[in-house]
Amino acid sequence: MYLTPQHILLAGATGLTGEHLLDRLLNEPTVRRVLAPSRRPLAEHKHLDNPQGELLDLLPQLSGPIDTAFCCLGTTIKQAGSQEAFRGVDHDLVLAFAERARALGARHFLVISALGADAKSAVFYNRVKGELEASLRAMGWPQLTIARPSLLLGERNETRLGEQLAAPLARLIPGKYRGIRACTLAHALWRLALEEQDGVRVVESDELRKLGR
């Protein structure tokens, strides 16, 4: 069954995937409003509402109604400065955003997690992503879509040396471990937003690539 999201809340609109997703949303004729809080201003658009500031400070000010929410938030331990700060963004801030989206009426929440997310993982990054997924499941969303992309490919505003070195190899690895372009992921997220089904759906990277073609 398919639906047509009209009132959308988007976090991470200035990020690698979020930029592509925002462009897609603003060019969809069925979308009436995109509420996209961000630290720096976005290009003006008649269907865009862009409050500016720190997301955690902006959350109480956001207004609905919202039917669909996308979360493209994410950082690295290097960018954040510590494991604690990383968890503050990739777990705590995402949950705070999800709670606000739910309060504004969102029925469907789509979030970018990561390949290998596992709350019991010995790898800190994967463990945090797994704990986030578990926390989102516990919220009891009518519809929750968890995207688990592999290495994201595309031009970032900031340099991530590890990703730059891994990108050529990531294009060659088969199956769900192969790298995925951010524009492809954004397209897949929109496709998934159009599908209406109850409960939780986890979408691995190989399926995301197919959906995003």
Automatic annotation (TrEMBL):
Limits of the NAD(P)-binding domain: 12-132
Span of the signal peptide: none
InterPro entries: NAD(P)-bd_dom, NAD(P)-bd_dom_sf
SUPFAM superfamilies to which the protein is assigned, alphabetical: NAD(P)-binding Rossmann-fold domains (SSF51735)
Listed Pfam families: NAD_binding_10
Gene3D superfamilies documented for this protein: NAD(P)-binding Rossmann-like Domain (3.40.50.720)
PANTHER family named among the record's database cross-references: OXIDOREDUCTASE HTATIP2
Name under which the protein is recorded: Oxidoreductase
Organism whose genome encodes this protein: Pseudomonas cavernae
